[in-house]
Amino acid sequence: MNKRPTFKSQRSISNLLLLLFGGIGGVVAGICILEPALKESNIDFTMMILGSFVGLMGCLGLFQVIAHKSFEVNKNKILIKYIFGFTKIIDRANIKSWQEFQYKHGDKLVLKTNTGKIKIQAREYSNYELLRFELIYGKKLEESENRYEKNEDKNAENKDAAILFLIVAACFFVGSFFVYNKKDKKMSSLDLVTISGVVLKNDQKGQSSLQIKLKEYPEFKFNLSGVAYSSTSLTDYMNNTNIGDTISLDIELEEYEKKIGGKQALGFLDKVFDYSFISVYGLKDKDYIYLSLENYNTEKRSDNKTAFWSFIGLGCFFIGASLYGLMTGKYLVEIVE
């Protein structure tokens, strides 16, 4: 009698690439957003929230890549292998029943054993139908009219969502602590250096930033964003300044020495992500001052207060959402699928 051959699951390449590149892209994008947003001199709490969320989603995607299970199935055993070499062996006789749940994004198979459950997401396997057949062959389908039993899997996913929400809440509380410690810190004139140049281009990016290019430093974009943008008399500047006019900019001494003066070595993030961007903290021409250090520090203090309470509020919201979901089971399962 021929021995039954071992069946092996096959990883869905499209799903793997989506999670892998999406995860890496999310982490990199989160760093790119957070790095300028967390500058000690110019904290931008809106971008902090966005960067934290994007980075967290990227980490979640990479976690799903790492947590993937591959299966080897033979007549008597099921081997579940994980990416770091850990293998779990299950006797087929220990599988009591199975259920399958349908979601908008794909099916999920749940095998019930003597000691727990094994969950298989259809989207992770290119040969899911064959894998499903091998795993449930000879096992009974568990069907119940009991509403609690039918929603048992959803409730388990709600617990996962609750954990995710608590992690997000913790991130916001950490952010509030960070902002609180910086709330009274002011930018000093000793931290700045003034440069002058002829305007090549004024490029306003919606209602969030202004990028200025100077003839003397054509490789750089002098950027006003966040607090600097909101404390600048932007309308006056745009009306009074034309291409070819000479203006003066206050920029950080550290950035000047790194990128223009060449007196300090560039860091990794400076080289990879934001070399061409230099933040501006003062803006004037021969007749007008459009952004002063005094106005910048005043606006920054107000912005830090808003950021602190926004982080506290969002943290409380996600804790409340987590507790509500655990008590009522009214999460959208798709959040963590």
Q: Which H/E pattern describes the elements? A: EHHEEEEEEHEHHEEEHHEHHEEH
* Number of E-type strands: 14
Distance between the termini: 43 Å
Approximate helicity band: 40-55%
Taking all Cα atoms into account, the compactness measure Rg is: 28 Å
Trace the largest sheet across and list its strands: 9-10-11-13-12
Poorly predicted tracts of residues: 145-150, 332-337
What average pLDDT do the residues reach? 80
Structural class: alpha+beta
How many individual helices? Answer: 10
Can you describe this structure?
The chain has 337 residues and is an alpha+beta fold. The protein has ten helices and 14 strands. The strands form three sheets. A five-stranded mixed barrel has the order 9-10-11-13-12. It has a four-stranded antiparallel beta sheet with strand order 1-2-3-4, covered by helices on one side. It has a four-stranded mixed beta sheet with strand order 7-6-5-8, with helices on one face. A hairpin with a 4-residue loop joins strand 3 and strand 4. The longest helix is centred in the C-terminal third of the chain and has 36 residues. The protein is elongated, with a radius of gyration of 28 Å.
